[in-house]
Structure formats: C-alpha cells, structure tokens
Recover the amino acids of this structure.
C-alpha cells in the first residue's frame, strides 16, 4: 500500500497547513489538504495514491509512442446517449443477454446487459452486438420528467445456478442459488454444498439473478410508486408481446401528471392506462404462477405465488413486490427555485448513474454489466453545464465508466474479473497540448476502490517504482476536481487561492464503488504519452498530441470561471439538528478478516440485523439529522450509500490513519456514497496497540459523521453497503421518511 | 472459470447428453439444460408431463448434485435449467510437475434411463474455486 505522503507533491507553503494535534490526540479543524487526505483515504480499501499531477519529465513522456510500443489502445469509445426532448426523457430500456467478447476470456461469457433507445426507437445503444459495453447514457435536464419503459427480456435458459422462476422453497428450501462441489481429496469423491451452505439464508443470499429493476443512483426524486423505487422485482419474460406492452406503457406515461404525481398504488390505479397495464400484469403473473418451474415440475404452490403476494400487498396499502416482463419507471426531476421552499433541495445537476438493484442479484447483475451513466444537466446560463460551456466553449467532455465484469455464478470466485473502461481494455484519450477537458469518471464496479492517478506511460511490466521516483519531479498535468458524486463543489473548494482549493487537484482521489468524480484536466504544454492508472493497473492511456490548443485554456482561476453553487447546496446547519442516530455497519463480533472461518464467510449486518421488510429508522420530512456511521470490520471499508438524499461529512475517524477523529472544514463536500473507515486495534503506525482502560488491546471502530436533510420526498428507501455482494448478503436496511406532522420545539 | 451447459436431448428412445464428453477446468460451473419435450411414461396418467431428467454421479446418490430433477420442456417454453451448478476440485499435480492433471467423472441420468451416461474430464491446474476471495469480497 502506498502511504499518503509517498505521493504528496508538497510545496513549502503546504507544510504550514498541517493540522494541529491537541493534547488529547484529537485533530481539530484540519486544513483542506488534511481533510482531503484523511477523508478520501476512507473511501478506499486499497491505496492512497491519487490523481496527482503527473510528475513525469517531458523527456520520459515524449520518448514513447502512444500507447507504448507493443501495446494497443483503441480510442475511448463514447457511449451512446439517450437524450430528453421537450422536457421528457422517454426511453425503452431492455434487459437482455448475449455472449459478449470480454477481454481476457478465452470464450465469450453469457452476460446480461442493458440495451436502450428513445421511446420512438431512435438513439439505440449498443450499436454492435457482443461488445461488453455499459448501458446507454441517459441525459436529462433539471425539471425533466423521466419515463423509462423497463422490459426484462432475459432468457433464463441461458443461465444456470441461480433461481429466477421461483425462489422460496427451492433447493432444499433455501431459496438461494446453489452450487455443489465435487472434491477428490476424499475417496470416494465427496460432494459438498458450497453455496449457500449453512451460512446464507434467503433473502440475504445470491438468488434471482435474472430478475431486475432500476435504481437511479444519485437522484433526488421520489422513492415511491414508479419513482426511484427498488422494493420490487421484475421477473424476466423473454417472449413478451413487445409492441402491445410498449403501447400500454406509453399510455401510462401519457397519463402521468408531474403536478400530481403518484405516491402509492391507489394513486397509480386512478390512471385508466395504469389499470390496463395492471390487467396485463395480472394475466402475466397468473400465467407465471401456473407455469414457473418448481422443483421437478411446474406451477407454484399457493404460498409461493406472486399474484397473491401482490394482491395482499395492495390490500395492505403497499406497492406490489412482483411484476413480470415490464415496468413503467416514471418521475420528475425536481428543479430548485431560489427563495422557494418547493422543492426544499432540488436535484443536483451532475454525473449520476443507474443500475439494477434487485436484492440478491445486484452484485452479479453489475458484474454482468447492468449499469450506465445518467447525466443530469443544468444548461441555464448560470447552471453547472451552462456556465462551464460559457467558460470553455470548446470543452470536450468524456464520460468514463469503470466496470468489473465476471460471469461467476453465485460469485464463488475463481473466475476472471476484468476491469473495463467504457467496455474497453485500456482505451486511449487524446488531448491537445494545453487543452482542458472535463472527465466525468464513474466507478460502477462491484468491489474495486479505484485510485486514479496520471503517470508517464510505461512499457508493460515496468516497475511502478519508476513512476514513484518520477512522481516527485516536474509537474506537467494539472487537474481540478469540481464535483463529487454528481454534486458540484463550492467555489471555495476549487479556488486556487483558498486553503481548500489550493490542495484540490494535487491531493489523492479515491473512488469507492459508486463514487463519481468530475475533473477538469489540463494537458501538459507539449506532446507526450501518459496513463491513468489505479495502483499498478493501467486504466487508460492519454495521448497528448498535435498543436497546442488555441486560444489557451486554463483551469478556473476565479469565481467568474466557475458555476455558482445553487443555494440548496449551502452547508447544512449543525445547530438545526434535532435527531442524531448511530448506524452500525458490522460483521460478527470478533471476526478480524474476510474469507471463510470454519467454512463460513462474514455475516453482514446493519444495526445488528440483515435486510428485512421492517423499517429500521423513521425520519421526518425536511428535517436535518446527524448520523454517525460506524464500521467494526478491520481491513474492509464498507461504502455506505443512502438513496434519495446526499449528505455532508463533517467528521471522520479512520483509526488506521489518525489517532483521533478529524473535524472537517467547511464548505463540506456532498456525497451519496462514502467508504466507512475500518476498525483497527493499532495506532496509525500499525504497531502501537490501541488499548482499553485496563490496558487490553482492543479494536476501535472507524466512523464518519454526517449531516443530511430528508428533503422533499416521503416514502421507504434503503441504505446499504455498495460492495454489492455485501448488500445482497444482508448489509442493507429499510428506512422511511414520513410527513413532519409533529412540530418540534427547537432546543439549544 | 467458465460457465458450462450440458444439454439433455431426446428425439426418440433414450435421452442423450450433448456433448457426451466435456473437458472442463477446476472451478468451472457446470449445469444441465433439459430440452426433452416427449411425455414421460406414466401409464395411468393420460396427460403426463414432459420427461424430467436428473444428472447424478455414477455410484452416487440421485440427489448428490441437485436436490430436484430438471423438469422436461413444455411446448412453447424455454428449456428448464438445473437449479444449481456443479464444480470440481481435483487434486493438483505433484509439486514440480508442470503438466496438468486430469480426472474423469462419469455421470448418469437418475430418472431411470440407466444407460444414459456422460463424461466430464476435469483438468488442473486451473483457477480453483477459492472461497477466501469469494462472495464478491
């Protein structure tokens, strides 16, 4: 592991920024550099390298072809976009499967994927079959209505080992996908059930991998009804009458009134078109219940049938948990109006994404590639996109999607796991000398904490030490982070003359799974070949070539060069907090490592429970709360993600990095995913034990403290670990926001 | 590691496995797909279901690999899959030996079609199923 200081290109003036440690070991009000290092450190389970300015000499960069000789690097392919028109983003999103040519696989694995188009069939993506690309990039403006016709057309008979036709009661009653291993260590050979074994139990196990839904990660929209609701599954129906289905779904979309949105099933059923769709669904569900595979035959027993489950849920005032073949995702993206309280927050314009989020199959579906970017723009003159375009009329923008691909059933390991960039292996970006580009980077991997940094392109096999030596020298690349998780920075965090902004761009960037980073990247003044790498892995090459950009481009120097942060993104007021909670991400007490102990892998919980249908926390609408999110796992940084509302981190304690907690300076960065620092039983030196009052060495939990406002939307949603295998296996929690009917008296 | 599907076919007479012999590596995930549409032989049932099949190791219990039979393929439906996978973990070659080790396993159809058999040849070295890096970390 690289230590933070290994890669800091400290200038003399920066030394004075080092935060002061008080007598009790508590680090208070760390400077921006300290904040970035400590906070971003917590997003990684791997390393603390970062998007450092390339410290490579020009000589090194210029002496190589690009990519280096004997390597190949196709031009970074732009992912096809589906753009909104007339205030509506209307699209068809199909879940299908095909054998895809994945680099590193000798045979093309069968993978599920998203294929999409506008609702009229235009802007179809992907354009070529068999390529392991992400789903289409969705592009909308603030205030748009989003209407996605989700069609699940996965052909289950092309897969094995996971349950999609019926869950509970299958495979000896576990309801989980299963695997048996034949072991020749015994004579005769023995057979052992290696998954789910006796350690995972339905529903917190891998199962139902061809069942899908859509989560719109980073959106501040309703979690209810047809919004960003992941509390249902859409079973596959490969042979549906697509034209008939789409006609009904279009009618459903046409009946949606954004001024009077659907909050529940009863609202939804007021639409005659929704009634027609539900009638189709009832037929499909009944057929499914009669024909689904169950044990050695077909037809589900009454207790397992889906239509009765839906009927019971509707009678209880709940949203049905099951659909077959299709679903009308439909909601409005709220646009903030200054000096208005409606909405209280609004959607942050920026780099967001979407992915399948069916509990039990989220990890495998993302490993198959079921994810894509969702860019929400504010193109108004003062908005994030509009202002950047005004400052940089020729700004090139790259959407860079990192994915891990594998086809390992039930994620039992042993298979290839390939990291791709826009579906390619080590593609290449081209820049002119001196050019500034906007890179929207999305970590849509299932497990990988990425530590992107720019280095000189080196021939394959060149030791990283060469880079680490060079990193201390000449600065050529420069870059400036301008947004985190789709929320733009306050100018104070960009301003090169402020303490916070000064360190931005020369401090480490670490992207936990689900994190997004917007970077303005300025190429060196002369040609050269560089690489974006994470640890020792090259992610892509950067070919700086051609004539110098003209007119010259510079990173933002003043507020006039940068969009003003919308008012709803001002720092939350800690004094307004009336409710504090502690949320405990944990595995079993006493466990100190991943892997199997006596055959059993970790048992992942939040607040002592695995995911279930009981609401664990109830918050009041529009209230600001302070949450302390803790982690008892040594060596594992569970990336905490909560749907619907971003949050600001005000304090962090990473016992592997600091003696005590670090209070962060404002303006605070907004996040929607943050890797909780791990537990540790030693001081940051890795040797000195942490002890209790009796002198006994003990583990202390890592944590972060955050402020968040549960703004604008009531309903049930989840927080969970974004290492998605942990989520599927239990590390997810149901919470809800209810109307604030009981006003509090404010206390100080 | 790869996903491997073995088809069970029957156009007339006895069911067959396709391919009848398959080479896999340690850790490959093997499953069976039942394409058999012909009715099972049930003299007292005028509308018997399509013939189910049940892969099992020769010499082992019927349910050694799968808890259930794979039902037959009804007309108009996709062929059912085994609900689970089988992997092999064979002994690696002796230390210092560079040539792979292989081991052959015979399997049968445990639905009464006693002569229907197939062969799986497992090779090592290959990426073994490694529980310690598994379950999506």
């Amino acid at each position: 592991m690289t230590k933070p200081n290994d890669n800091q290109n400290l200038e003399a003036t920066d030394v004075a920024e080092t935060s002061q440690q008080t007598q009790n070991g508590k680090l208070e009000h760390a400077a921006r550099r300290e904040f970035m290092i400590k906070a971003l450190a917590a997003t990684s389970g791997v390393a603390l390298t970062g998007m450092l300015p390339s410290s490579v000499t020009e000589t090194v960069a210029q002496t190589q072809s690009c990519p280096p000789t004997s390597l190949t690097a196709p031009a970074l392919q732009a992912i096809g976009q589906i753009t909104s028109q007339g205030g509506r983003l209307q699209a068809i999103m199909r879940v299908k499967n095909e054998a895809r040519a994945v680099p590193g696989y000798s045979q093309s694995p069968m993978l599920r994927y998203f294929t999409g188009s506008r609702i009229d069939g235009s802007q179809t993506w992907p354009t070529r079959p068999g390529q392991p690309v992400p789903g289409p990039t969705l592009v909308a403006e603030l205030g748009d209505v989003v209407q996605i016709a989700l069609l699940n057309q996965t052909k289950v008979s092309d897969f094995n080992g996971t349950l999609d036709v019926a869950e509970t009661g299958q495979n000896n009653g576990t309801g989980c996908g299963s695997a048996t291993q034949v072991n020749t260590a015994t004579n005769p050979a023995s057979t052992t059930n290696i998954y789910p074994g006796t350690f995972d139990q339905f529903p917190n196990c891998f199962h139902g991998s061809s069942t899908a839904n859509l989560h719109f990660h980073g959106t501040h929209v309703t979690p209810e009804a047809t919004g960003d609701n992941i509390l249902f599954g859409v079973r596959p129906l490969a042979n549906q009458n697509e034209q008939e289905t789409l006609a009904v779904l279009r009618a459903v979309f046409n009946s949606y009134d954004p001024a009077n949105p659907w909050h529940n099933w009863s609202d939804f059923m007021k639409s005659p078109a929704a009634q027609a769709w539900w009638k189709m669904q009832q037929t499909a569900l009944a057929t499914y219940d009669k024909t689904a595979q169950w044990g050695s035959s077909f037809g589900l027993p009454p207790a397992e049938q889906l239509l009765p489950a839906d009927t019971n849920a509707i009678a209880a005032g709940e949203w049905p948990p099951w659909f077959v073949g299709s679903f009308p995702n439909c909601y409005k993206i709220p646009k903030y109006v200054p000096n208005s309280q409606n909405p209280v927050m609004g959607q942050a314009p920026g780099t967001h994404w979407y992915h399948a989020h069916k509990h039990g199959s989220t990890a495998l579906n993302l490993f198959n590639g079921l994810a894509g970017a969702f860019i929400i723009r504010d193109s108004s003159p003062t908005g994030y996109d509009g202002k950047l375009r005004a400052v940089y009329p020729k700004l090139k923008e790259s959407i860079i999607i990192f994915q891990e691909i594998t086809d390992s059933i039930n994620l039992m390991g042993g298979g290839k796991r390939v990291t791709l960039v826009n579906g390619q292996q080590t593609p290449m970006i081209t820049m002119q000398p001196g050019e500034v580009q906007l890179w929207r980077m999305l970590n849509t991997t299932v497990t990988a904490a990425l530590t992107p940094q720019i280095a000189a392109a080196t021939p394959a096999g060149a030791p990283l030490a060469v880079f680490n030596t060079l990193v201390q020298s000449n600065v050529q690349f420069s870059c400036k982070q301008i947004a985190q998780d789709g929320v733009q920075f306050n100018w104070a965090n960009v301003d090169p003359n402020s303490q916070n902004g000064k360190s931005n761009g020369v401090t480490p960037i670490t992207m936990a799974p689900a994190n997004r980073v917007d970077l303005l990247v300025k190429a060196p003044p002369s040609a050269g070949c560089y690489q974006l790498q994470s640890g020792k892995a090259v992610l892509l090459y950067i070919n700086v070539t051609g004539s110098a950009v003209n007119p010259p481009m510079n990173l933002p120097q003043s507020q006039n060069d940068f969009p003003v942060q919308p008012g709803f993104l001002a720092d939350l007021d800690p004094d307004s907090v009336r409710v504090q909670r502690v949320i405990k991400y944990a595995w079993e007490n006493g466990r100190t490592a991943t892997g199997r102990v006596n055959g059993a892998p970790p048992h992942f919980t939040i607040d002592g429970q695995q995911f279930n249908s009981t609401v664990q926390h109830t918050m009041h609408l529009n209230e600001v709360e302070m949450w302390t999110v803790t982690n008892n796992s040594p060596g594992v940084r569970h990336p905490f993600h909560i749907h619907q509302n971003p949050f600001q981190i005000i304090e962090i304690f990473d016992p592997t990095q600091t003696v005590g907690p670090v209070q962060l300076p404002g303006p605070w960065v907004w996040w929607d995913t943050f890797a909780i620092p791990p537990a540790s039983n030693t001081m940051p030196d890795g040797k000195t034990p942490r002890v209790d009052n009796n002198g006994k060495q003990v583990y202390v939990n890592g944590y972060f403290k955050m402020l968040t406002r549960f703004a604008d939307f009531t309903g049930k949603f989840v927080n969970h670990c974004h290492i998605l295998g942990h989520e599927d296996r239990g590390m997810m929690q149901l919470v809800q926001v209810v109307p604030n009917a009981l006003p509090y008296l404010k206390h100080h | 590691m790869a996903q491997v599907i073995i088809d069970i076919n029957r156009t007339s007479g006895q069911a067959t496995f396709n391919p009848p012999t398959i080479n896999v590596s340690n850790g490959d995930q093997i499953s069976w797909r039942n394409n058999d549409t012909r009715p099972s032989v049930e003299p007292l049932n005028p509308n018997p279901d399509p013939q189910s099949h049940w892969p099992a190791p020769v010499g082992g219990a019927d349910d050694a690999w799968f808890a259930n039979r794979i039902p037959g393929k009804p007309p108009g439906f996709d062929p059912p899959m085994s609900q689970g996978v089988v992997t092999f973990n064979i002994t690696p070659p002796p230390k210092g030996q560079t040539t792979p080790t292989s081991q052959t396993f015979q399997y049968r159809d445990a639905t009464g079609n006693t002569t229907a058999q197939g062969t799986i040849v497992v090779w090592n070295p290959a990426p073994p199923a490694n529980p310690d890096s598994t379950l999506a970390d």
In short: The first strand of chain A starts at residue 81 and ends at 83.
